[in-house]
Amino acid sequence: MAERNKQVEERDVEAGLDGNLKRVDEDLDIMERHAEELDRVEDDIQESMRKWDREFKNASLHSVPKPRKHMR
């Protein structure tokens, strides 16, 4: 009886994967159609992250006054 239940569960999993595969295929099609736009958005995000990182490091690491920098 346990084996029969296992077979039923495997069929349910396979049926669920078909829907997921269709959704993934549709998402990939959309990404392929809009590849240039996705590249531009990714570049913008990376540039803004670099800018934020540079500003954070400048504010946190390089703006310490010399008298405080060398105090122990």
Count of domains: 2
Q: Tally the helices.
A: 3
Helix content: over 70%
Beta percentage is: under 5%
* Radius of gyration based on Cα positions: 26 Å
Q: How would you state the average pLDDT, rounded?
A: 79
Provide structural commentary.
The chain has 72 residues and is an all-alpha fold. It has helices spanning 2-33, 35-61, 66-69. The protein folds into two domains: 1-33; 35-72. The chain has three helices and no strands. The chain is elongated. It starts with a helix and ends with a helix. 0% of the residues are buried. The model has no long low-confidence stretch (mean pLDDT 79).
List keywords for this structure.
elongated, mainly alpha, 72 residues, single chain, 2 domains
Short structural summary:
The chain is an all-alpha fold and 72 residues long.
Q: Topology, please?
A:
Layout lengths: L1 H32 L1 H27 L4 H4 L3
